Amino acid sequence: MFQEYTVEANGIRQHVTEAGEGPVVLLCHGFPELGASWRHQLRALASAGYRAIAPDMRGYGQTGAPVGVDDYTIFHLTGDMVALLGALNISEAAIVGHDWGAPVAWTAAQLRPDLFKAVLGMSVPFARRGSISSLAKFRRAKLDQFYQLYFQTPGVAEQELEADADATIRRMMWTLSAGPSELWNGMIGEAGALASFQEPEGEIPWLGDEELARYGAAFRAAGFAGPLNWYRNIDRNWELTAALDGLPIARPAWFIIGDRDPILPFVKPAIDALPQTVAGLRGTTVLPGVGHWLQQEANDAVNAVMLDFLAQAFPASPT
């Protein structure tokens, strides 16, 4: 059912998984995932009359991974999505993003409303540019072991996470899901990154051995440097985006998050502000009993919200 191929766009090789025919929905994954993390949505969108396109994002999987840290700014990432559609001769699309893919989707909709006709963010809400960067706030609070700060020094987290890519994926998927009794607090302990994520007690019910093996093989091959470089541009992104502050997201928008997502406490103020910060906001959905990987943990619920939103904002056929 899925078609996989590679295109050259924005100066890099982009690996794409797609399904279906019809209006295009572009799916942007987060850390540490792949285009295949949208497998449930690819099927649902195709069945509903859409052409669903899920690239491995810059630095991930079979997509190119530039060496330079500053090759991973928000403008590179959104540029990849614009260039991908251009390479495929697509003139309009809805864009969906989860985790790090959400800022890509929000920014793409903000910059190119002519191209992106609707936007849906998952887990990470749109947030106005503050007076200082988000990392600066964590530094001021002396949260030096907060994972985003821990990831800043090139080579440190890579060495720890690449020592056992299979264990890294397995533990991260479990730790940030709704499975553990206590939510992860975002801190990296003295033993390092890998040791800060819990080993699941048994099988992860929403992630089978085949999917885990695919993730593990991809990260063994490509490593974690590219994905971690997204975090190393948080300060740089703040510096670069001053001109975007106040630029509206006017196209229809929706936001989804799980109520057991460990990042919810950190992003709740931005969620509460969405009616003021996103002009096109149609609504927000908080899924009960769902963790960070909501499109995999609760695919039926996510698909229902997504398809309902798209039916109104970017229909597959005239109504």
Topology, number of strands: 8
* Largest sheet: spatial strand order: 1-2-4-3-5-6-7-8
The radius of gyration over CA amounts to 18 Å
Separate helix tally? 14
By helix and strand content, what is the structural category? alpha/beta
Write out the CATH superfamily name: Alpha/Beta hydrolase fold, catalytic domain
Low-confidence stretches: none
Order of helices and strands: EEEHEHEHEHHHHHHHEHHEHH
Q: How many domains comprise the coordinates?
A: 1
Strand-residue proportion = 15-25%
CATH fold-level topology: Rossmann fold
Dominant shape = globular
Classified by CATH, the class is Alpha Beta
Reported CATH architecture: 3-Layer(aba) Sandwich
For the biggest sheet, the summary is:
8 strands, mixed
Q: What is the residue-mean pLDDT, rounded to a whole number?
A: 96
Give the arrangement of secondary structure elements.
Layout (H helix, E strand, L loop, with lengths): L2 E7 L2 E8 L4 E5 L10 H9 L3 E5 L18 H14 L5 E6 L2 H11 L4 E7 L11 H7 L6 H4 L5 H7 L2 H11 L33 H14 L2 H7 L2 H7 L12 E6 L5 H9 L1 H4 L3 E7 L6 H4 L1 H15 L6
Parallel strand pairs: 3-4, 3-5, 5-6, 6-7, 7-8
Antiparallel strand pairs: 1-2, 2-4
Helix pairs in contact: 1-14, 2-3, 7-8
